[in-house]
Amino acid sequence: MATTLAKADESVEFAARLEHVSKSFATPGGQQLVLDDISIDVAPGEFVTLLGASGCGKSTLLNLVAGLDRPSAGSITTDGRPALMFQEHALFPWLTAGKNIELALKLRGVPKPERRGKAEELLELVRLKGAHGKRVHELSGGMRQRVAMARALAQESNMLLMDEPFAALDAITRDVLHDELTRIWAETGLSVLFVTHNVREAVRLAQRVVLLSSRPGRIAREWRVDLPQPRRIEDAPVAELSLEITDVLRGEIRRHGQH
Amino acid sequence: MASTETTPVQDAGSVEAGLDALETTTTGRPPLRETLVDKVLPPVAAIAVVLVVWYILYPVVDDPSKLPSPGAVGSAFRDAWLRGELLGYIWTSVSRGLLGFAFALVIGTPLGLLVARVKFVRAAIGPILSGLQSLPSVAWVPPAVIWLGLNNSMMYAVILLGAVPSIANGLVSGVDQVPPLFLRAGRTMGATGAKGVWYVTLPASLPGYVAGLKQGWAFSWRSLMAAEIIAQFPDLGVGLGQLLENGRTASDMAMVFEAILLILFVGIAIDLLIFSPLERWVLRSRGLLVKS
């Protein structure tokens, strides 16, 4: 796989580095600025959540980091190509759960005899042992997202980008998947950049929460979350910090109504 | 990560197993008996009704040159079978039809992909291709006879002109309906360019493509029959179309009925044996075939 991106080695001190990234799109009314001067460093193994209301350009930002789009200004450096997970599972319905994972392995160049075993291992990691032959439509929403996670992990990137991956799930399933993600993150040492509009989810998961303002998306504030994992979303310190962040977020949103 | 005094979450795995069990429903194939009652019985009953009506009408019309008795048509079948010609008629037409269809597949598939993926080609021939679909392919028989003469290549040309637009258009609409999310997901995994087409676009467009194949077969079978009725030549052998025409020239209504029934049955049989199972398999494996 030809890539001009930095290769994984000891000297890399960041998993992703965004420097003064701006992005604007052409609209009928002229150029519309979506992201304005975003600078973020994600350290190797760090878990960062990007938090913001509608129109903050969260998904645009992830697309840029994933290399699906180019910034209008500024630069993005990543340590290899990051894996990306979407709100919808985006699994291919013509393949079984296991074959979806094997396709990711194949595209990465893993030789055929090794693929099956690796796919089984990844399924075991997301606690879906025995689901290799299951069709996507036979799985529940939570199971699909776990297969999608296994497929993303199959890319063996150093970084996992997640675009509101649990937003469409019911609260119970989401809660369990938070536990799973935390466990897998701790086991694999991946860097995670996780986009959400759910403040508690952001605090529950992250080591660092970055709040984006809307239209255009700018970095409004950052919080370190020095709470030990595993956390629960009901924990008092999580609730306390969530409250503080929510107030700032509401302030940001309120500004848009004052015209 | 260091564990702390907060409530342990070690049981996440078992909670998850419980959720998985609660939210998964297993669907299997229906039992054979149910299939027989639901799928086989109704058409058999319909055929029985047609036969009964036929038996009642026959003495009313009372003119075997207009309406032959079911018995006469039956013996036309039996005689053709005893002469050893029945399978020959069928095979002459079916082999032509399937070979022509295979050619159409080889031409229509890359053509459809080209139209779907290359903007210029789509703008240039896309509308013509969909227009050709509404042109009855029978209309190609006279020019094909003039260009190629009364021979097999003329029949294949007519089949191609009937089936290629359907196959190509099916693939185009299949590709158009591929969710952009699949393409994005594919790209993040490294499926770009030809790999993206092979691993994502083509399999994702399979339902539309198969629908195109099905329609393409129906069109090519119809146009082949038209071509066979018109192209009478001893060297061509007797297919179902020629059988029909022979019946007409001999004013043998039983033979005409025999030919029409054979054309109908072969068309249905090919669809039932090849295209319907293919379509059902594609849809079922994607969870798109919902039992009502």
From TrEMBL, chain A:
This protein's record includes keyword Cytoplasm: no
Family annotation (InterPro entries): AAA+_ATPase, ABC_transporter-like_ATP-bd, ABC_transporter-like_CS, ABC_transporter_ATP-bind, P-loop_NTPase
Pfam name, any one: ABC_tran
Keywords associated with the record: ATP-binding, Nucleotide-binding, Transport
Domain ABC transporter, residue spans: 16-241
Listed SUPFAM superfamilies: P-loop containing nucleoside triphosphate hydrolases
Residues annotated as signal peptide: none
GO MF assignments: ATP binding
Gene3D superfamilies referenced in this protein's UniProt entry, alphabetically: P-loop containing nucleotide triphosphate hydrolases
PANTHER family named among the record's database cross-references: ALIPHATIC SULFONATES IMPORT ATP-BINDING PROTEIN SSUB, TAURINE IMPORT ATP-BINDING PROTEIN-RELATED
Stated name of the protein: ABC transporter ATP-binding protein
Organism: Streptomyces achromogenes
